[in-house]
Amino acid sequence: MEYRYTIIDADATSNLQLQHYLEDHGDFLCVDRSKDSREGINSILKFLPDLVFINLNDLAMDYFLMVSELHQYMNELPLIIGIAKSKEYAYHAIKNGFYDYWLMPYNELDIRKTLLRLKKQHPKEVSSHTICLKSYKDFQYLDTDEILYLQADNNATDFIMKDGSVISAFKTLKTFERSLPKNFIRIHQSYILNMDYVSRINYGKSICALKEGKKQLPFSKTYKENIDGLKKVLSRNAISTLK
């Protein structure tokens, strides 16, 4: 499951910069962007995000009032991360229950630490067999049981479906690697496969054959540990002819 977030930031450059950092972590889906506190409160009440990023520069007090007002309408507020060029508003952020406070320019290590801590303290469990592919205002829902494998295509990813259709998403393979159910494993720089459709593992030729469409996918030495794990899973319920 993904963490849904909204950004409240009048600066388009820092807005896009933040989205870029979050995309590298997967598991985070931007549901809306706002320019000020008025748009922000409407966005939060409309989309009910898990996480809100607020650029506090210049209009900090308006945003703190917005957070106070949210308590009138919500039993539980989303986690809020304040962003500013200095520590000037840090005390107010703490008093208003912000989850964290980042200084600009963005620091990759600080972002990574916060997001890992967030995932540890507020884990999202995969509760369904559906994955949502979002492109601008288009939302497409795929049944993961119908996905044979995923294939990297430059900075996009192709989902190869059981019925033969191919659905493209404009995110990297790495983005989906963390959000898919446990029956999906990375076997190659370019491939993630659904182990439920594997019919053969050939270590000599370094390929996995699929039950559907007689497709053979290569696996690399880098992911041999995943292949060994796949073999163990498939062997549990198989009748072996080995002596």
UniProtKB/TrEMBL annotation:
The keyword DNA repair does not apply. Residues 4-119 form the Response regulatory domain. Residues 131-236 form the HTH LytTR-type domain. InterPro entries: CheY-like_superfamily, LytR-like, LytTR_DNA-bd_dom, Sig_transdc_resp-reg_receiver. Keywords: DNA-binding. Coiled coil: none annotated. One of its GO terms (molecular function) is DNA binding. It comes from the Bacteria. SUPFAM superfamilies: CheY-like. Pfam families: LytTR. This is DNA-binding response regulator. It comes from Muriicola soli.
